[in-house]
Automatic annotation (TrEMBL):
Residues 1-19 form the signal peptide. Pfam families: Rick_17kDa_Anti. It comes from Crenobacter luteus. Keywords: Signal. The keyword Chloroplast does not apply. The keyword Signal applies. Residues 28-64 form the Glycine zipper 2TM domain. This is Glycine zipper 2TM domain-containing protein. GO terms for cellular component: outer membrane. It comes from the Bacteria. InterPro entries: Gly_zipper_2TM_dom.
Length: 66
């Protein structure tokens, strides 16, 4: 649980620097952060699950258009 909370705090801090990003870059970063958190939760904090979730979330976020 502590790893998950640390990861969430790290991602939130990283996303705070999104002001100069394009919409697509911002969506990719948000998707990657969400995917990493979800991957970590679903795999019990396994590093491979976290990285895999970030990769999948980043791809999905990149493809989202408003």
């Amino acid at each position: 649980m502590a790893k998950t909370m640390t990861l969430i705090a790290l991602m939130a801090g990283t996303l705070a620097g999104c002001a100069g990003m394009t919409e697509r870059q911002r969506n990719t970063a948000i998707g990657a952060a969400g995917g990493a958190v979800l991957g970590s939760v679903l795999t019990g904090g396994d590093a491979v699950g976290t990285v895999g979730g970030a990769a999948v979330g980043g791809v999905i976020g990149n493809q989202i258009k408003k």
